[in-house]
């Protein structure tokens, strides 16, 4: 067991608002720049993760503004920022339990829960030495944290295309597990706990497993992925935590690739994007499918280097792309019942995404669908968090020409 983990004195520290509001010069949409500290990089949680809490009044983000990567929140009405963690090591793999005011993350090898109201922390599990941890999921009943751990294998990444080193790592077949641990450990009198939960191993394989996402409504249901170049793997997998049954979701035909999977708000439907053909000449698409591989719906996408999110099938947000073949805009697609397909996309806000090394927007709709959060370096001082308002009538936005 690693040394006891305690919050430092800056947990709960209140910081002044940094919010700036402007009108997007091309779309007319109202955009709030929520962070603007020139000495830090700020990112909202990964697009698959719940990040609004306190009845939608606060948004979680991570920042290195105190010298280590920590968790913060911003009050969306006042703009005030609260430091939520003060820990000796960087944190990562952050999520929020969809039904509880609880955040989950890695701090070193420790899997930690954070009460977002009291800021008490609890070490739930310590992963073995020589293993890395993926983004964490919290089950819909708030009872278990679910994640993947994989054997750490060194591959050269400097000055190499991302797809190249990912393929090399995949070929090494790292030992991986998908496991869950209980969240409900008791805290000590200081509000901090060190209760090492016994993990339940649900999947144990010699292949690179990653990206565990928990259904927001079904406690037994999660997805995980087989990591690697999408054209070389069976990417999206479902897992029943009660039976350990696994199955492929959105199986791909020859020449098809899918990934960047996420749950819609119903907890039954999985979203994704992908392509047919090759990376150099793709027919790109996005879509959704029920976890049992029924009721598939797909639309045309402008590029493959992007991300998508939706709460329902009716409105989908996408990043656009950093490549010259596509737009550097957050895009919105609305389902057209009359035609039975997605209407051509509308531009919501520019983000000036320039390359794979630049901050990815990772656009995500708010739970009520009225805003989109995204990251961008367009302010000129590192990455910041932005929030764009979705107009009541999407026809007020320009079409992607």
UniProtKB/TrEMBL annotation:
Domain of life from the UniProt record: Archaea
Molecular functions (GO terms): oligogalacturonide lyase activity
InterPro entries assigned: Ogl_dom, WD40/YVTN_repeat-like_dom_sf
Ranges of Acidic residues composition bias in the record: 185-195
Any one biological process term the GO annotation gives: pectin catabolic process
Residues covered by the Oligogalacturonate lyase domain: 12-322
Protein name, UniProt field: Oligogalacturonate lyase family protein
């Amino acid at each position: 067991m690693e040394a006891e983990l305690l919050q430092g004195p800056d947990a709960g520290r209140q910081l002044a608002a940094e919010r700036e509001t402007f009108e997007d010069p091309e779309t007319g949409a109202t955009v709030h720049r929520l962070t603007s500290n020139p000495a830090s990089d700020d990112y909202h949680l990964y697009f698959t993760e719940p990040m609004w809490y306190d009845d939608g009044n606060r948004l979680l983000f991570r920042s290195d503004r105190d010298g280590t990567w920590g968790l913060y929140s911003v009050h969306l009405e006042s703009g005030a920022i609260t430091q939520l963690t003060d820990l000796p090591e960087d944190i990562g793999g952050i999520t929020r339990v969809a039904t509880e005011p609880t955040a989950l993350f890695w701090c070193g090898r420790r899997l930690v829960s954070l009460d977002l109201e009291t800021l008490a922390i609890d070490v739930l599990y310590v992963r073995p030495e020589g293993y890395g941890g993926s983004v964490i999921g919290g089950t819909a009943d708030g009872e278990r944290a679910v994640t993947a751990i994989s054997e750490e294998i060194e591959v050269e990444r400097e000055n190499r295309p991302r797809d190249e080193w990912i393929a090399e790592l995949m070929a090494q077949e790292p030992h991986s597990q998908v496991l869950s641990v209980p969240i409900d450990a008791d805290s000590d009198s200081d509000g901090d706990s060190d209760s090492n939960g016994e993990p339940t191993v649900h999947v144990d394989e010699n292949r690179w497993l990653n990206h565990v996402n928990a259904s927001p409504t079904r406690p037994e249901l999660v997805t995980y992925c087989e990591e690697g170049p999408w054209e070389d793997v069976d990417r999206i997998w479902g897992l029943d935590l009660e039976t350990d049954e696994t199955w492929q979701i959105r199986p791909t035909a020859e020449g098809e690739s899918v990934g960047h999977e996420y749950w819609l708000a119903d907890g039954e439907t999985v979203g994704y994007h992908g392509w047919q053909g090759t990376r150099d000449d793709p027919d790109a698409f996005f879509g959704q499918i029920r976890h049992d591989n029924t009721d598939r719906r797909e639309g045309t996408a402008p590029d493959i280097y992007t991300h998508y999110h939706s709460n329902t099938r009716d409105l989908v947000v996408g990043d656009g792309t950093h490549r010259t073949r596509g737009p550097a805009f957050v895009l919105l697609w609305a389902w057209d019942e009359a035609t039975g397909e997605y209407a051509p996309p509308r531009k919501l806000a520019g983000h000036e995404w320039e390359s794979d090394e630049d901050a990815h927007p990772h656009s995500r709709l708010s739970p009520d669908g009225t805003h989109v959060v995204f990251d961008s370096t367009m302010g000129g001082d590192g990455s910041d968090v932005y929030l764009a308002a979705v107009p009541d009538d999407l026809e007020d936005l320009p079409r992607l020409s």
